[in-house]
Amino acid sequence: MNLIKIRSVAINAVEKACRACLEIQSQLISQDTINKKDQSPVTVGDYTVQALVINEIIKNLEEEYPFIAEEDSKTLSSEKDVEDKVLSFFNRFSGESFDGKQLGSILDKGNKKKTISNTNRWWTLDPIDGTLGFLRKDQYAVALALMEDNKPILGILGCPSLPISKGSEEKGCIFVGMKGSGSFMKPLSNIQTEQSISVSDKSDPTKAVFTESFVSRGFGHELNQKISKDMGVTEEPLKIDSQCKYAMVARGDSDCYLRLTQMDYRECIWDHAAGHIIVEEAGGVVTDFKGNQLDYSKGYKLEDNVGIVCSNKNLHNPLFESIKKSIQL
């Protein structure tokens, strides 16, 4: 099937998902829910976005590829209040009139791990990547990727809260990367326009800007500090949640994104596939901490990879020199 058509349909699906996310945040998140650390708004968001994206793609493309996504209907069907909210938001933004059974059927199309071995193309979706960012109305991403022969060939990152440029007051971007076609950014305010993006050309390791999560998991921040210190980095890291970190590298706002939280942890494929292709098509490099290509052929996890190393091409070798000095792999 024509990738240009798939690209267009996927962008429209992620756009609808982004607008639904903003409305869910507006209606369900308050200072009270933040203070109580109430997770229910992101639960509603996860289910709504997964259903919206899968439904839009299946409805508008002639050929149906299987999905690997985070959610299924089992838990939702036992939480009537949450299910009612999901149905309301889904029907509003999709234009459908689904009942709970139809909603569950769409959600369960995201649980097709067993079928991807029978096709060379499949989708992977993280409905809301960046739970904490979503709950505090900060950074999160809708992350969708189309895989071919277990490699991402199309990536869409919807970032509803991300400024359209460094320092801009206007927020809301969709990033798109397609194999052999480059990477682009679309403002959510005018989805018909797009501008080409590229990674930075920075080559001086001491000037590199790292990007990392607000909250450190495992030894992540400690390791980043060790590596950046060895490189002689003087810049403060850019702290941001979710796959927005890939977007920051892809458009040159930062130069390096490293992720290794603990040696035995294996990353989920939906946390990286979309960002991976967007950075590569913007001229960057994405490998693991051993310099190996990411292997998406093992199911839900990057079982054969240790961590993530993402940067422009100029800084990739200096990064690895410092990685070798900073951790025993």
TrEMBL record:
Pfam families: Inositol_P (PF00459)
Amino-acid positions noted as binding Mg(2+) in the UniProt annotation, renumbered to this chain: E70, D126, I128, D129, D271
Keywords tagged on the record: Hydrolase, Magnesium, Metal-binding
Chemical reaction(s) catalysed: adenosine 2',5'-bisphosphate + H2O = AMP + phosphate; 3'-phosphoadenylyl sulfate + H2O = adenosine 5'-phosphosulfate + phosphate; adenosine 3',5'-bisphosphate + H2O = AMP + phosphate
CDD domains in alphabetical order: PAP_phosphatase
Function: Converts adenosine 3'-phosphate 5'-phosphosulfate (PAPS) to adenosine 5'-phosphosulfate (APS) and 3'(2')-phosphoadenosine 5'-phosphate (PAP) to AMP.
NCBIfam families assigned to the protein according to its UniProt record, in alphabetical order: bisphos_HAL2
The protein's enzyme class: hydrolase
Keyword Hydrolase: yes
EC number: 3.1.3.7
Cofactor: Mg(2+)
Designated name of the protein: 3'(2'),5'-bisphosphate nucleotidase
GO biological process, one term: sulfate assimilation
Family, as annotated: Belongs to the inositol monophosphatase superfamily.
Keyword match Oxidoreductase: no
Listed GO MF terms: 3'(2'),5'-bisphosphate nucleotidase activity; metal ion binding
